[in-house]
Amino acid sequence: MVPLEYYLFLSAIIFAIGVIGVLIRRNLIVVLMSIELMLNAVNLTFIAFSNSLGSMDGQVIVFFVMAVAAAEAVVGLAIIISVFRHRQSLDPQEMQLLKW
Amino acid sequence: MVASTATVAAVDVLRWIPLIPLSAGLFNVFFGRRLGSKTAGSIATAAVGVSFGVALYVFWRLPATGVFRDLWYTWIESGSFQVNIAFQVDALSSVMLLIVTGIGFLIHIYSMGYMAHDDGVARFFIYLNLFIFFMLLLVMADNLLLLFVGWEGVGLCSYLLIGFWYQDPKNVIAGNKAFIVNRIGDFGFILGIFLLVTELGRQGIWTLEFTELQKHVQLITPAKITLITLLLSVGAAGKSAQIPLFVWLPDAMAGPTPVSALIHAATMVTAGVYMVARLHFLFILAPYTLPIIAVVGAATAFFAATVALAQNDIKKVLAYSTVSQLGYMFLAVGIGAFSAAIFHLFTHAFFKACLFLGSGSVIHALQGEQDMRKMGGLKSAMPQTYWTYLIATLAIAGIPFTAGFFSKDLILWKAFEDKSYGLWSIGIITAGLTAFYMFRQLFMVFHGNLRADDHTKAHIHESPPLMTVSLVILAVGSIFSGWLGAPEYLWGSVWDQWLQPVFGGGHAAEHAPVTTELLVTAITLAVVALGIYLAYARYGRAEAAVPATAGGIYRLLLDSYHIDDAYDRLVVRPFTVASDWLARVFDPGVIDGLINGVAKLIRGFSLIWRESQTGNIQHYLIGFLAGTLALLFYYLRQQ
To answer: Is the pLDDT confidence value at B2 over 70?
Structure first.
């Protein structure tokens, strides 16, 4: 039996990788993937707690998160395609029009 | 102190007295122009007539020592402080009611004839009805605030009607002047109301109702009462055209003549006298205010009478005469003879309205000519106008057994009885001056030769019956209205009896001997006779009717002592210069500078802060992350 702390550390590391990916990567698709990474890190904690506490609640929420993540991926990819068609680029640093 | 009113009966017809003219006015707003001038005028006149009928009914039912009250609804409620839209009619209000609706009705009838050829008849009658509404509000209000609403309302209507013929800028300026000068008085009035309410409120009594005020005024310190009454009398002086705020009334003659008769002679200008009489319980507690009012009144009476001596405009003479007669009323109020003041108000309403309408009849016949130097000899062409004018002139001059005789004599007698011999002698001299200028006017207009040009001469005609019927009724009133207040040595005064529950008193103590009273009357009559004789000697003969004098004093009087000039120099021009400076220097420099400065300051800050908004989503996300971490840190620290 793997102790709970192992899962939590792993999940924290994955989450941190996701955050850093969102903040520094220059490709929107990778940014989107990093977001997925963060979501799945959270899913992992849910499952770990569910298992250790013997409750099904965490697993139910994970299904919700997956559904939302799927929807988000669809919308996000659609936006990315649309942006790429307009600008031939996916670098978020170049999308700075929405300011004063 | 006066015992508070015995019976209070609720009568819910009271509200209809002001509401009927108001609804007729509103009706004419929407349909007046379409229905044509005759219909609009008839509706307006009928409304005031119905109002008069209701007022008569109320007057007939009013018990001798009672009050009718009609509470409509509560207007303002704040803690224990309450202001109602409520009407009350006691002996004093009932008299004012009858004057306003009765004289108002006659003047409405007259106006239908006088204004028949005007384009704005519907508008005229709307204003006139609105005026009647506000005036009724003023005299029927059961609290000071509602009275003030009426007070301001009549001021507004006065302004609208003075500037009725607005195509001529002169009329508009006259209207503005009346409004602004009244505003100065009203400022004092409203300050007085504020002070009265807060001073009583300090004693735990928050009220504006007259009956409540009357019960509790003793709680206020005498010094404060003096201040309150002084402020209130500033308002009264503004409305009733007393020194120093009288300047607007002569200019107000720019309005149509029926307006001068209704607003600037019979009703609105007497509102100041009414207000002081209504608050008499307050004023008799102010030993310093009443003498001031009396002196102002006497001074105004004398001063205006001297100015009237030299005027050539037929309406200006009457305007200054009105100022002078209002001075008499103030004099009476100032010596505590409230009943006498209201009595003179009552008789004055008849003969002055008659004089104004008569002058309107003359102006009508002479195609708008107002200069008396171009009149004369109208006696034969306009017999009805002449005879009614003569009767009203006799009444204002104070010939025995006319209305003016009884009321003016009563005031002079009260002044004598009060041992105010200075005021009394000014009153007597003024009576002589009044006789002189009124007969001068009568001779210049109706006697001698006609001095108009041929075109005008050809068109002279007696006025239509619509106009003369009012003249005749008012002339009858100019004689008999005074008989209600006859002195003790004749048949006694019904008037004093009627108003006694309101003003109290009825000082039966040590009545002066009748011989003294008769002697005082005789002195007055002698002075009046002298005035009439001098007027006859100078203007009575056929050829000499035109004033040729152009001496210094004559010109001084003609320009009413250059008071307008002085006001222009001392008040208006400095004010204009100051306004100009404010507009050109202060406003763009300081006010705009302040506002623009604030804007620039904010812009400066924004220029720095907006640098943080890069548009780069990853920068924002860093901020988002930092915020989340900070919150997380904060809550973890707390546990």
So the answer is: no
Q: How does DSSP assign B162-175, residue by residue?
A: HTSSTTSHHHHHHH
pTM for this prediction: 0.79
Domain boundaries along the sequence of chain B: 324-548, 567-638
Q: Which residues pair with B10 in a beta bridge?
A: B69
Cβ atoms B174, B252 nearer than 8 A: yes
Q: CB atoms < 10 A from the CB of B513, how many? A: 9
Phi and psi based region of residue B74 (left: phi greater than 0; alpha: psi -120 to 50; beta: remaining): beta
pLDDT, average across residues B362-369: 87
Element (H, E) at B394: helix B383-397
Q: Does A19 touch chain B (CB under 8 A)?
A: yes
B625 close to A (CB below 8 A): yes
Over 50: is that where the pLDDT of B4 sits? no
Instruction: List CB contacts (< 8 A) between B609 and chain A.
Output: none
Least confident of B328-337, B507-516, B593-602: B507-516
Q: Is B582 helix (H, G, I), strand (E, B) or coil?
A: helix
Strand B66-78 versus strand B81-89 pairing type? antiparallel
What ipTM was assigned to the predicted interfaces of this complex?
0.87
Least confident stretch, B270-279, B323-332, B385-394, B543-552: B543-552
CA distances from B475 to B244, B409, B435, B486, B618 (A): 32, 20, 17, 18, 96
Residues B207 and B204: their CA atoms lie apart, in Å, by 10
Distance between CA B303 and CA B388 in Å, rounded?
27
Place of tokens 């000014």: B426
The residues near B455 (Cβ < 8 Å, ≥ 6 apart) are none
Give the residues across from B9 on adjacent strands.
B68
Q: Which residue has the higher pLDDT, A78 or B517?
A: A78
Residue B226: pLDDT over 90: yes
Nearest C-alpha in A relative to B621: A23
Token pair for A36:
């997925």
Report which DSSP code applies to B388: H
Rounded distance between C-alpha atoms, residue B271 and residue B153, angstroms: 12
What pLDDT was estimated at residue B605? 93
Which of B610, B617, B622 is facing A92, going by the closest CB pair? B617
Torsion-angle region of residue B256: left (phi > 0), alpha (psi -120 to 50) or beta?
beta
- B86 pairs with which residues across the strands? B71
Residues 78-97 of A with CB under 8 A from B: 92-93, 95-97
Residue matched to tokens 């192992």 = A6
**Using 50, 70 and 90 to split pLDDT, how confident is the model at B118?**
confident
All domains of chain A, ordered by start, with CATH? 4-94 (1.10.287.3510)
CB atoms within 10 A of CB B529: 14
CB B48 within 8 A of CB B101: yes
Virtual torsion, Cα B112, B118, B123, B127, nearest 10 deg: -60
Spatial distance between the Cα atoms of B140 and B130, rounded to a whole number of angstroms: 15
Q: Has residue B323 got a pLDDT over 80?
A: yes
- Give the best residue of B610, B614, B618 to mutate against chain A (max A CB count within 10 A): B618
Evaluate if residue B541 carries a pLDDT over 60.
yes
Q: Which residue from B387, B390, B391 is spatially nearest to B462, judged by alpha carbons?
A: B387
